[in-house]
């Protein structure tokens, strides 16, 4: 059984396949790391109470203790996530491709979906965005801002004084030039 392909094909195949396998392995490893780190608020409850359920069926299972496979208290974060899934069911179905109770549910509702298309109930259920500037301002930052504002004002005042001084010099120079031209 001899390989009848051209020598170039044998060489290409011998060098390409191992490289492709290594690349594929690296891509799969990176993808599995990303998947492992992205979880939703009810992930622990899903694993313990309803491991066979996903999507909207997970919500149904989590709400009915008779369907649970073990005993566990549902966390506050999961209860909040469940409330958001209930309030935004129409938006999840329409705008988020039915991704209820998934890792992308919150991302879809808060980033991928235009906020003006959300129903009032859904918008109210979503976590409120903090005004970052207001939340970040503390006494030290406020003092720093006031100091910078004063420094800018002082610099502007100094520039205005220089400008007036330059204008006076220019007027003097013109008068002197005019006087010397009149003397001629």
Explain this structure.
The chain is an all-alpha fold. It starts with 6 loop residues before the first helix and ends with a helix. The model is unreliable at 29-37 (pLDDT under 50). Helix content is 70%, strand content 0%. The protein has helices at 7-37, 43-49, 56-63, 76-87, 89-95, 105-112, 120-125, 132-136, 139-183. The chain has nine helices and no strands.
Outline the biggest β-sheet: none
Q: End-to-end span in angstroms?
A: 114 Å
Mean pLDDT: 81
The low-confidence runs, each spanning 5 or more residues with pLDDT under 50, are 29-37
Share in β-strands: under 5%
Helix content range: over 70%
The helix count comes to: 9
Succession of helices and strands: HHHHHHHHH
Morphology: elongated
SS class: mainly alpha
Can you tag this structure with a few keywords?
184 residues; elongated; 70% helix; mainly alpha; 0% strand
Quick description:
Helix content is 70%, strand content 0%.
Q: How would the blueprint of this fold be written?
A:
Layout: H1 7-37, H2 43-49, H3 56-63, H4 76-87, H5 89-95, H6 105-112, H7 120-125, H8 132-136, H9 139-183
